[in-house]
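Prompt: May I have another protein with tokenized structure?
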Amino acid sequence: MDNQKYEEALSQLETIVRKMEANEYDIDQLAQQLKTAQQLIKFCKDKLTKTEQELAKIQAND
């Protein structure tokens, strides 16, 4: 997941949520997809935090 792009992770997360809401997963799939969703959420949050820090650095140098 480290080389994944934010947009790809967000899209994958949206797909999981849509399928969960539509009850498309059985109980075994649901547990696995929930774990995947948690990893994707963490990845997206970390990516956003890192980007915010980089932007703050750039703005501080101006």
